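Project standup — Tuesday

K.O.: blocked on the structure for the chain from last sprint. Re-posting the sequence here as requested.
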Amino acid sequence: MSKEFLKRYDDLKMLLEEKYDMKSALTHGGKFHADDVFCSALLKIIFPEIEIIRANEVPEDYKGIVFDVGMGAFDHHQMEKELRSDNVAYAAFGLLWREYGSFFLGEQAEEFDRRFIEPLDQCDNFGTKSELADIIGDFNPGWDSFKDKEECFCEAVTFAIRILENKFEYYRGEEKAQKMMLSRMQDGDGTILVLDRFIPWKRALINSDYKFVIYPSQRGGFNAQGVPVSEDTNNLKCGFPAEWRGLEAEKLQEVTGLETLRFCHTSGFLLAGDSRTQLRKACELALEQQEMNN
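H.V.: unblocked you, prediction finished:
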């Protein structure tokens, strides 16, 4: 983890310790759900030794942070729920993230809320189907089980911590990739970008004029890919020609006239080969055909 992120964590730790006694946190007892489990996981990432107390009432003199119970700042059981700008109601995890999410993901905190937390909040508030919420819920002891409820809760929190840490690492990697891509895009021709190493490129190129990207393949050789028109679709700005699709090596080389090509995906989004130069030529041919068809 970079110094920047470690500093964010230190700043959050200091902020929370100024407001609460962070030796413990309190949430509801009984059956646990994704909402209270992920709140607990989030706090434990910053305070690994924090004790999560599960009780159905909040003691009057309690000084720790309270969530998903007690009708406080991080509870959502009031009749009038707080709503996001897109009118999705907050649950406890969303409320906690709204307050402190920027310390974890900076400018990406809002996107993480929209993509990851909103579906969990909707599930908790309205029973909307969520596979992740079901997976967390399955940590509860079954009706005929003799497992200890608190041990099961701890197992669920440990699992949720791993999920969050993996997600945070992914988002931070995306942020790093975005900065690297912006630099490389400035050196490219604006249409076909050739990378000297694989970098997660999609987010940067979708919002650009680039139509193809070429990069080293983990299987050896190189790949060329068409750039999608948006993050929410597989439609491409320009795909490889229909007559290339599904072809391999000899047949593909015969059709294209490029002797180092290996394979074209049946959907036309990807082309594999042994030469950056010939993959670039293949992209140029695809662009020429698109122009002719238009």
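K.O.: great, moving the ticket to review. The first helix runs from residue 3 to 19. The chain has nine helices and eight strands.
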